[in-house]
Amino acid sequence: MTKPDDQALILREPAELQYRAQLDALIQADATTSRDAPPNAWKLSPRSVLAYITGTPKPIEATIGGKKVSVAITRKFFNDDALVERAIVTLASERALLLVGEPGTGKSWLSEHLAAAISGCSTLTIQGTAGTTEDQIKYSWNVARVIAEGPKPSNLIPSPTMIAMRTGGLLRFEEITRCVPDVQDALVSILSDKNIVVPELPDANMVFARPGFNIIATANSRDQGVNELSAALKRRFNYIHIPIVGDQKTEMAIVRDRSKELIERYKIPAKLEEPVLEVLATVFREMRNGTTADGTTFQKTSTTLSTAEAIAVALDSAIYARYFGTGAIGVADVAKNLVGSIVKEDLADLQVLKEYLSLVAKKRGAKDALWKAFHDAAIKAVASAS
Ligand SMILES: Nc1ncnc2c1ncn2[C@@H]1O[C@H](COP(=O)(O)OP(=O)(O)OP(=O)(O)O)[C@@H](O)[C@H]1O
Ligand SMILES: [Mg+2]
Question: Is the pLDDT confidence value at 333 over 70?
Fold first, then answer.
């Protein structure tokens, strides 16, 4: 993919553009070291794909734009690295990959980075919805030209699947379980025969997949029941369950890294300081688990308070602080923006927050000014939301 000239016009670059220097450095490292050669049409060797996603302890020396530079390979996905290894192995095999897990656990994020590292393109994507049709998975026609000229290969509009097959790339299929079973079944033949038949064309009516073609699908475990995958399709996918990161240190690292990047993208000068980040991560973890480290228990929220939600609260707090606050991101900004995340699924969750505030935050506030500020602002936010 080429980089458009006017960078200012892009709100969010795909991974292969945003992390191009890191990917280029790893491609050079593959060529100069004795690492395994990239399989099939892969851009990187499996070891380098893993290094791209989990980061490397030391920067890599590379020549970028004619200059010798050392490029730090940052960690993109925080979780058990064995999960990433299994995902890479699956993509090198005959089987397709299905990442399943609670909302906001980084499934789409991991799939984007895997596609960027393996095939150099993360934008061949189908977003599964109840309205996704078989045409969107296979191909459609430019109807006006078909009426004028009849069905010809040049009048065919290829789907992302067909493009991925022709180029030996990876197709990303987001939220696959939202598609109705008939539509999901269109994938069975693609995954078994690795071709798409175009019966409307008199000849050359088969599109064959090139080596390297595979599918990375994601499914939200809360939606699994919407349209469960058929047994035939299940057999063609390797499932990898992505759990919510359990430990506070890792969750803080994710929120720190991702919110820093977002805050910079929105050109907000403020920084999320460690003590504020710690309060945010603690509130999320404790409310999600319904318990604190010292054994206080309370009701859990029905909303999954995912890591992605914590990142969103951090960004909202930064924007709030920038325009309506002091400029510095404080715990009061976090408290104000937390309420929206808590009541997403059920207004009754506000009661859970109230219980948490009185059982936990108030007690801590007696000894700690930061927790007191959080408690006071949250009480006000809850009162205005109820
Ligand atoms: N373990 C993680 N490592 C790195 N980033 C993460 C992780 N978990 C969540 N995130 C961040 O959270 C944000 C949302 O993640 P993403 O959209 O991938 O979630 P998801 O699992 O696909 O959710 P959904 O099921 O709702 O689609 C991303 O910006 C991502 O960077
Ligand atoms: Mg997703």
Answer: yes
Neighbours of ion ligand 2 (CB under 5 A): 108
Enumerate the H helices of the chain as residue ranges. 15-18, 20-32, 46-54, 81-91, 107-119, 134-137, 143-149, 160-167, 181-193, 231-235, 248-265, 274-289, 307-324, 331-342, 349-356, 362-365, 369-385
**pTM beyond cutoff 0.90:** yes
- Residue to probe by mutation, ligand 1, list 258, 264, 313, most atoms within 8 Å of CB: 258
The architecture of the domain spanning 77-242 is 3-Layer(aba) Sandwich (3.40)
pLDDT digits (tens, 9 = 90+) for 102-136: 999 999 999 999 999 999 999 999 999 999 999 99
CA separation for the pair 204, 181 (Å, rounded): 29
How do the domains of the chain map onto residue ranges? 77-242, 248-385
Please, are residues 344 and 308 in contact by the beta-carbon 8 Å criterion?
Answer: no
Ligand number, closest to the Cα atom of 254: 1
Is residue 303 within 8 A of residue 351, CB to CB? The reply is no
Residue 3 pLDDT greater than 60, yes or no: no
Q: What is the mean pLDDT of the chain?
A: 91
Q: Given a cut of 90, is residue 75 above it in pLDDT? A: yes
Phi-psi group of 212: left, alpha or beta (phi > 0 → left; psi -120 to 50 → alpha; rest → beta): left
